[in-house]
Amino acid sequence: MKYDVTITIGLKEGMLNPEARAIQHALANLGFPTEGLSTARLYRITLDASNAAAAKKEAGQMCERLLANPVIHHYTIEVE
Amino acid sequence: MRFAVVQFGGSNCDRDTYHVLSDVCGVETDLVWYKDGLERSYDAVVLPGGFSYGDYLRAGAIAARTPIMAELIRHAKSGGLVLGICNGAQIGSEAGLIPGTFTLNAYPKFISRHVHLRVENTTSPFTGLYREGEVIRVPIAHKEGRYVAPDEVIARLNRDGQVAFRFCDEHGNVTPESNPNGSAENITGVLSEAGNVLAMMPHPERASESVLGSEDGVKIFNSMIAYIEEHGSRGTIR
Question: Of the residues A20, B132, B137, B211, which has the fewest C-beta atoms closer than 10 A?
């Protein structure tokens, strides 16, 4: 069965995010002061799996083996 | 004695490194295209700088998962020397050859300039020809070079002598001002636990001839050669 999987990968809590800081600064220059800003990368993957749990497990392995770096990243997986 | 320099699509310091090894240091060296694999055993393998796979996903992440890296990991596990320079350091950390990782600079732009490094370990196969605490001048050229690792890993690196180089000022003082990219404790050269892998962001191959303004980096390659001459290609690593 085909499943659409959405993987969101962001930096772990407390990790310095220079990209977010630069964006926050640019927003402030445009008159949009913000109290917090973080960035994340989103992957939409379509895959074949026997059930939703298997699709989620496979997506987890993708994160562990390539998409995320466990030193700095956390990730969430949603299966539709 | 024979060295290999691995070329990935997007490597761009491969020929510089080859030139220094073969012409300056006088060691037989092969340029090895990553798809060809390591077809023979080497005394040392160098992962050169560049932008393998266009830095897609994360710098070094995709090159780290190519088949030649499985062979390189076997080479390292058997005690063979591996030197990762810049993108090669990123590939090495992504492949798990050293702890921690190199990520986006604290000020998120590309930095290309000479920096000073303090040599923190003079017993490794890569640093044996330096004096303890020696200050060397070598260029950096990267955007993703900020060394990050959990606190307990940093503590272990410090305790076990796995820090090879720290950014410092010209007098050897390790200060926040002399840290160009925000690396944890100014660390920019990391040794594996066994000591036979060194991942470093600065470019020693760009500081290996007087015509380039500094010869401070050539001692890294010459240290490797001296180590192999003394201990053999799979020398007793600590």
Answer: B211
